[in-house]
Structure prediction request, 239 residues.
Amino acid sequence: MSRSDLVYYPVTGSTNRVMREYMDVAWEGFTVVAGEQTCGRGRMGRSFLSPKGGLYMSVLLKPEKDSFSLITAAAAVAVSNVLKERFGVKCGIKWVNDLLLDGKKVCGILAESVFDTNGSPKAVILGIGIDMAYPEDGFPDEIKDIAGALGVNLTADEKLDLAEEISRVIVDLYPHPEKIVPAYRKRSAVIGKDIFVIRNGVSVPARAVDIDGECGLVADFGMHTEVLRTGEISIRIKD
Ligand code: BTN
Prediction:
């Protein structure tokens, strides 16, 4: 990876959206970076607050057939490793795609598959938003209890440098489940914790027991144990 694999927008709507304009001509690892987003997108149709202190990036991946499933987990491990090396912070992974620092969310990941005309997946746009600096006006009331930041102010050039390293680590890591799974388990912020599993709007108490060999979350509901896969499930760690 080099700087010619990245493009920088001081402000844009959504880097995942911008990537759709590049993806037919761009290559594996190509990365769109923004200093601020006006329409940041999160999982489950939610918006993602993207003020100017953050780093917002989308990486284009063109995986082999069997390398799609662990992309989000690989991204969580990669970001957590790079942030630890660069800034000495130890982020935990909240299954499946959030990074927590001192219990507060500092990074969200949104992987969007792109399909060919036959309906087969052909690429993934991997969006990552990291709260580097605290927003100038603080976090809005709705998220101020759950959102955090690393407390680091970066110039545009430093953001590009960080994004380049994150993309490089992801591209190297995501085809290797044997490296992703143990690292993901080690960084898990949920194993051993009481959680709520939220499915179709219904919230059920459980205990997070383990991360399985495919980065599924093994949850003990008391009467039965279930392995949760990605999809329309979210969890909340009990206070
Ligand atoms: C989530 O926490 O629900 C996922 C948030 C993903 C946000 C990133 S920021 C870069 C990329 N562009 C977007 O619009 N979303 C992703």
In short: The chain has a mean pLDDT of 94. The chain has two domains: 3-186, 194-237. The chain has four helices and twelve strands. The first helix runs from residue 15 to 22.
